DNA sequence: AACCAGTACAACCGCATCCTA
DNA sequence: ATAGGATGCGGTTGTACTGGT
């Protein structure tokens, strides 16, 4: 039992608006206003359109001062930062960009800006198995990956993480692994709280040419609470033996977990270990991550990084964390 | 010229929330 | 307090357009 439709779909016109329809709607609203009732409006004008369709047409195309296309670099950056901060809250993002509509920004993001900023994604064959494919008994569509799991990693969250790293000046957060794979240490084998998935990340930040710190970047993205415990007040080092350091790491870990999973369930696990999301257990094992520049196999044995540090293969493999191939 | 694949964008759909009687 | 209608929102779809072969 769904709710009753807002209009009779058999009797309303659908599809692209004609210039005549546009003119009717525009003239009426400019003269009379919407009257506070979109449902009744098409009947008053004599349009065979659904009220929702009229509202959308007015808001997105007919109302004054609407800008289309031609997004500036400043707008790109603002959209990027806002998306990193709040995700796909298009109406809020649109409110910060005068003349732009949520629909316009959403389309722009999905078709162009995302590719421009985050790069091209791999083919669907490399993606994680969707819920609808895992649970073939219930034919329920998967509204989003892991929609039935409280530990779902959302596409938005990972894109936001990636954007944050982009904002920090790293062209590709995953190429960062070429430099320091400890950045993504296996969360399931963490033995103490001074190890956490972002370990090493800040080392890279500190050694990058970026003029802004990760703190500034996170702050600008309004990720309150995602404060790096690796940075002391001098911005260079931290006393990782102190209890305050441990608690700040735990807090950081929790917030990071929340960003990834949409909740802070990591708090409920022992020693700050990260739980494995149910939806990430099903991965097409035959489809290795060959799209990765060098693959990850080379990280399965101990190796020495450019900075001279020896790393053990305790690092998490990306597919464990659902990051392989952006696996979402 | 015809076909095809990829892209961009307008519009639709369904759900969540708000509002009001 | 609550039920039902209106509205807002984000995800998705349909289609026109474009460029390559």
UniProtKB/TrEMBL annotation:
Chain segments carrying region Disordered: 119-148
Compartments where found: Nucleus
InterPro entries: Homeodomain-like_sf, Myb_dom, SANT/Myb
Gene Ontology terms for molecular function: DNA binding
Main subcellular location of this protein, as a coarse class: nucleus
Residue ranges of every copy of the Myb-like domain listed in the record: 9-62, 63-113
Cross-referenced Pfam families: Myb_DNA-binding
Top-level taxonomic group: Eukaryota
Name of the molecule in the record: Uncharacterized protein
